[in-house]
From TrEMBL:
This is DDE-1 domain-containing protein. The lineage of its organism: Eukaryota, Fungi, Dikarya, Ascomycota, Pezizomycotina. It comes from the Eukaryota.
Length: 108
């Protein structure tokens, strides 16, 4: 950082968190230890969203990004968004996760 004279306003930390839509809290399964369950512990038929947040070393932040699962955004997903008071980036990917192709969209 010192060698290249990188200033605090040019350093960012970003993190992402995925959420299964419709899963509000932790679930527990009870089963016999002699007969453990086979297969997935939860229904795989869930849509996913990913939230990406970023903060700058100077204390400022960038607007969050929400990635929905789909081939494009649907109006119903954004009906509660208030663009005049909420700055958020939205996009969609087939998996609902960040992919290399759309990562730079949030940085511009």
């Amino acid at each position: 950082i010192k060698e290249n004279d990188i200033q605090a306003h040019n350093m960012y930390n970003m993190d992402e968190k995925g959420f299964a839509i419709g899963v509000l809290n932790k679930a527990r399964r009870v089963f016999s230890s002699q007969n453990p369950p086979k297969g997935a512990s939860q229904d795989r038929n869930r849509a996913w969203i990913t939230v990406i947040a970023g903060i700058c070393a100077d204390g400022s932040s960038i607007p969050p990004a929400i990635i929905y699962q789909g081939l494009g955004l649907q109006d119903s997903w954004l009906e509660d968004w208030q663009p005049e008071s909420q700055e958020i980036y939205f996009t969609a990917t087939p998996t609902g996760c960040r992919v290399a192709n759309n990562s730079m969209e949030f940085n511009n």
